[in-house]
Write a structure and sequence with these properties.
mainly alpha; 10 helices; single chain
Length: 207
C-alpha cells in the first residue's frame, strides 16, 4: 500500500466521521453522566466491536449478514430498544446527591458493554467495511498487512474522535454544572435517545 493510497483512505474515513453517529452521542452521554475517565471504557467497547466487525468483513461474513434480513433487523432494533431504555431511565432518574453519586459510579463493565452493544447493534458496519476496504487494497500485495493497516488506521481515527467528544462533553458538563446540574441526567438521557433514533433511522433506510 502506497502512502498516497493510505492518505486517501484516511481522508475518506475523516469525511465519513464528520457527522456524529450513535457511538459518539453515547460517548457524550456517558462522559456527562460518569466523567471522561470512566467513559473511556465506552470507547473501548465501541472500538472492540468495530474490530470484530472488520474481522467479520475480512472473513467474508458480510454476505451472510446481508442475506439474513431478519437477523440484520433483529440486531438493529434490539440495540435501538436498549438505548431508548437507558436514555428514558436516565432522563426520569430522581436527581439527588445519592442518585448522582450512583450514576457517576456506574461500573466500567456497564460502560464498556454500552459502547460495545451500541456499535454491535449496527451489523451494517460489516457490509460497510467489506465495501470500503477493497477500494484501498492493492491486489498484487499481501492482503493481511494491508488489512492490519486499514483496520488500525480506522480504529485510531475513531478513537481520537471518541476521546474528543468525551473531553468536550466533560468540559461542558463542568462549566454548566452549577447552572444546570440538576438537568445533566436529562441531557445525558436525551443524548442516549438521540443515539437510538440514529440507529433506528439507519434501520429504516436499510429496508
Amino acid at each position: 500500500m502506497t502512502l498516497t493510497l493510505w492518505t486517501a483512505y484516511v481522508g475518506t474515513v475523516l469525511l465519513l466521521m464528520s457527522a456524529p453517529g450513535p457511538s459518539h452521542l453515547l460517548m457524550l452521554s456517558n462522559s456527562i453522566a460518569s466523567g471522561f475517565r470512566r467513559s473511556v471504557a465506552t470507547a473501548a467497547g465501541d472500538l472492540i466491536a468495530n474490530f470484530i466487525q472488520m474481522t467479520a468483513a475480512a472473513a467474508g461474513l458480510a454476505g451472510i449478514i446481508y442475506s439474513s434480513r431478519d437477523l440484520f433487523l433483529a440486531i438493529k432494533w434490539a440495540g435501538v430498544a436498549y438505548l431508548v431504555y437507558m436514555g428514558v431511565t436516565l432522563f426520569l432518574k430522581e436527581i439527588d446527591a445519592e442518585a448522582t453519586s450512583a450514576e457517576a459510579g456506574r461500573s466500567l463493565k456497564t460502560l464498556f458493554w454500552q459502547g460495545f452493544i451500541t456499535s454491535a447493534a449496527n451489523p451494517k458496519a460489516i457490509i460497510f467495511f467489506a465495501a470500503l476496504f477493497p477500494q484501498f487494497l492493492t491486489p498484487s500485495e499481501p492482503m493481511l498487512p494491508q488489512f492490519v493497516v486499514l483496520s488500525a488506521s480506522y480504529l485510531v481515527i475513531d478513537g481520537l474522535f471518541l476521546m474528543t467528544y468525551g473531553r468536550l462533553a466533560a468540559w461542558i458538563s463542568a462549566k454548566l454544572h452549577d447552572h444546570v446540574g440538576h438537568n445533566l441526567n436529562r441531557i445525558s438521557g436525551m443524548l442516549l435517545v438521540a443515539a437510538a433514533l440514529l440507529l433506528g433511522l439507519r434501520s429504516v433506510e436499510s429496508r
